[in-house]
Amino acid sequence: MQLTFSVDDTDLYVNGAPQRWQSPPRNIAGRTMLPLRETAALLGQPLQASGTQVQLARLSLDTRRNTASLNGAAQPAGTVASVGTVTYVSARTLADALNANLTGDDTGRGFTLTALRDGGNPMTPQARFSTDKNVYAPGERVVYTEYPFDPDGADITARRWTGRQDVYFQPGTYTVTLTVTNSRGLQSQPFTRTIRVEGQPVDTPLTYALKYAQPGDAFPDPRILTYPAALISPQASPSYPLLFSDSPEVPDQSGILYQDSVTGRARLLGYHLNGLGRAARLYVIARNLESRPVEVRSERLGETAPTRIESILGQVTLLEYFASTGGTTLTLSPGQSAAVYASPTLSTGSGVNVMQDLSASGKVELTYVMLEDGLPPTPQVIQQLPYLRPDGRHVRGTFPDAVRTLRVTLGALPTRLIIGDGRVDPAVTGTDALTGQTVRLSGNYGVLYDLEVNGAAGTAVALSPRGGLYRGAMNIQDGPITQTIKLPRTGNALKPDEPVLLWRAQSDRLNIDFVPSSGSNLPISLVFYRAGRVGAEGGVIKTYRP
Predict the structure, then answer these.
(1) 158-184 pLDDT, tens digit each
(2) Sheet holding 403-409: strands in order across?
(3) End-to-end Cα spacing for the chain
(4) In the record, which residues are listed under signal peptide (predicted)?
(5) Could you tell me the strand order of the sheet in which 86-90 lies?
(6) For site-directed labelling of 192, which of 63, 159, 163, 304 has its Cα 20 to 30 A away?
(7) Rg of the Cα atoms in the chain
(8) Euclidean distance between CA atoms 386 and 405, whole angstroms
C-alpha cells in the first residue's frame, strides 16, 4: 500500500489512484503529522482501541494524554497531537511502527509512505464491496455491490456499515467502511473505500425520493402545505354500521362497555386498556334476538393484544385486518349467545385493539364486555354485570356509515387529499345506544375510506402526518397487484414535512383502502406527485439493485 501526499493538501494518491483526505496531513511544531485512524484505514492496517488506549502494529498511544511508545519505548513529546477531535501522529513514527518506507521530495512538503498490508488472521472472514463509481454528483445514487467471503465458506451472518449512504447531497469526500462477522463469531478487519462528491447536483432530496424511495420510506418536502387540495367526489355506495367501544377506555371493574343490535353486516372496533388491577379479557358477545336460528359470520378480523405500547395497537390491527381472509361462522339458536371475539389475557395496564367485520343472517345483540380473568362470559355472568359509565374523554357509539366511498381524478400535480380533519373531511356522527345521546367520532377511527384515484399512472402517493405520531397501514390495488403497505416501514411518521411514500402507480386507476389507525394522530394528507422517470430532472434512473 503506497500513499503519496503533501502537507496541508487534501489530495493524495493511494496506489496511484486519486483520493482525498478528510483530515489532511499537517506540519505541527516542525513535524509532518498524519491523521491516525484515516491513515491506518487507507493502508489496510487494523487499529485496536480500548477507551483512550490505541494500538497500531508496534505503536501504543494514549489519545487523552497524547503520548506514544514504540515497542515499549516512550516517544518524544510532540509525536502525538490533537487537532479538534482528530488524533495526529508523526509520519516518521508511523513508518517505524509499520516497518514502512517514508521518503520525501525536494520541496520538503511531499512524501511517499509505502507499507505492507497487515497479514491478518487467516481464519477471519473478509469484508469486500465496490461502488459503481468513485466520483459522484450531488444527489446521484450510489450503487453498492457487496462480496464479502469466508476462508472456510462459513456463512456471513452480520454486516456493519459506517459512513454508507445511498446518496450524498453535499460535495465532499466520504469514507465508507464495511465490517462482517461469520457464523463462528469471528469479525473481519474493516474494509474501506472513499467516495468523492462534486459538480452540479443531479437530484434534490425530493426528486431523488420520487425516483428511488421504497414504500414506507420518509423523505423531506418542506413545500407540502402549499399544494392545492384535490377535488374529492363522495359516492353513494352500500355501507353498514360501525359499533365503536372506547369509553371508558380504561375500565376499573368488570362490566358491559357497550351494547347495540344489528342485522346484516357490521364493523366492530374496540380499544381498551385493563385498569382492573388484575388480569382480564375483552369479549364481544353475540346474542340471537330472533325466534329462528341465526348465522353470525366473521368476514375479517384484526387484533393487537396484549401490549403496553399504545402506538403499535392500531398498526398491527390494520395489518392483520387487511391480511384476514375470513373466519368462523357461528349458528345461534333463538336466545343463544356466544363470543364472536375473545382477547388474550390482558395484564394490568396492557391493552387490546380489535377490528372485526361481521355478517349476521338475522338480528343479533352485540355486547362488549371486560371480565376479570376467571369469570366465564356466560349469560348468567353477563346479566349480573353493571353497565359502565363513559369516561367523558373518549367515544363509544353506533355510527351508520362504516364505509366512506370517494373518487378523485388527478389533474395538476402535486396535490393533496385531506383525511380526518373534521372540516374538509367531516367526522361521522352516531348514537350512544346505551344513553341515547348523539356522539361525534373525531378522526373517523374505524371508518374504511374506499378511495378510487383516476389518472394515477406514473404518479407517486405519500402520506403526510398532520397531527403528530402516526403508525398505520393501507391496502392498495394497482391493476393486478394488491399490496398492504406498512406505514412507515420502521418507527413512526412524525413530521408534516417528511411524508412517507406509499406507492408508485402503474395503472391509470388506483384503489386505496384506508382506515385511520387507533392510537395514532389525525389528520393526515395523501399527497400525489409525478413520479421520477427517465427524462425528468436528473436524467436516467439507476435500476441495478444488487
Answers:
(1) 999 999 999 999 999 898 999 999 999
(2) 232-235, 403-409, 448-454, 509-514, 472-478, 481-487
(3) 29
(4) none
(5) 26-28, 31-35, 86-90, 80-83
(6) 63
(7) 32
(8) 38
